[in-house]
Amino acid sequence: MEIRHELVIPNNDLPFRLFIFEGREGNYKVTKHWHHSVEIFLVLEGEIDFFINNSHLKLTRDEFVLVNSNEVHSIECPNPNITIVLQIPGETFEDYMGEDSYVNFERKGEEANRKLKDLVTSLFFVYEKQEYGYGFQVKSQFYQLLYLLITEFKTENMDKEVIRQKKQLDKLSDVTQYMRENYDQDLKLDAVALRFGFSPTYLSRIFLKYAQVNYRTFLIDLRVKYAVRELMGTDHEIGEIAMKHGFPDSRAFAKAFKKRYGCLPSEYRKRISSTR
């Protein structure tokens, strides 16, 4: 099963992640992956090919797809497009899960679908403009969207095979969620495996099978992702950023950063600053 786990980090000022799809210029692919978040792709212009649960959907202007937590999916967009992506952490729906501790959503009738599209579109443009008081409006619309999902898009009876697959991926979701919350701590494989009742060998195996990387690589990837966000958004010293995000020193951070970005953190910061 050639799939990977995707880490979803909410926007700094929001309880969810909202952005324009990275493949807007076309000639772009996202390989098979899964995450613990509920995801909405809404095409504003152009088209994208979406593959989910062995089905192919060609999304064109004003069409959307709902991706449930732990559903394997991939995307291809050979042509330019403008697509809004909204990712909602799975735990947001904790109070509305069924007896199997899962909640699924699916497209409904034309009226409900139109409500969802209008809310997602408005949510995005309000957030983009960031006019005075936008934070209240964005969060208000977000909660309207959550209410709409729960009342009009929730699947009442989930397929047993769907539940089985979710349970397989849930084991790793729980571990990666814990790692996300504690990535800056000393997270040794043995200790994390013990916490979740696994053997170190078993935890290593499910990382390689589902995340397509070993445990240590995943942890370092996680630390770099959070460090990059601070690197871009602040003028803090690189050594300070390294220590804050779980690296023993700036040298270890620089080595991990260069392996993933092809340059040193200082060079990357200068490059980003020059484009603003």
Mean pLDDT across every amino acid position: 89
Characterize the quaternary organization of these chains.
single chain
Bulk shape: globular
| The named CATH superfamily of the largest domain | Jelly Rolls
Low-pLDDT sequence parts: none
- Beta percentage is 15-25%
- As a percent range, the share of helical residues equals 40-55%
Q: How many individual domains?
A: 2
> First CA to last CA: what distance?
41 Å
Element string (H = helix, E = strand): EEEEEEEEHHHHHHHHH
**Strand tally, please?**
8
Structural class from helices and strands?
Answer: alpha+beta
Provide the gyration radius in Å: 20 Å
Largest sheet: 8 strands, mixed
**Number of alpha- plus pi-helical segments:** 9
Text of the CATH class of the largest domain: Mainly Beta
Instruction: Find the CATH topology of the largest domain.
Output: Jelly Rolls
**CATH architecture level-2 label of the largest domain:** Sandwich
Keywords: DNA-binding, Transcription, Transcription regulation
InterPro entries: AraC-bd, Homeodomain-like_sf, HTH-like, HTH_AraC, HTH_AraC-typ_CS, RmlC-like_jellyroll, Tscrpt_reg_AraC-type_HTH
Domain HTH araC/xylS-type: 173-271
Protein name: HTH araC/xylS-type domain-containing protein
Relevant terms:
8 strands; alpha+beta; Arc Repressor Mutant, subunit A; globular; Jelly Rolls; 47% helix; 2 domains; eight-stranded mixed β-sheet
Summarize the structure.
The chain has 276 residues and is of the alpha+beta class. Helices cover 47% and strands 19% of the residues.
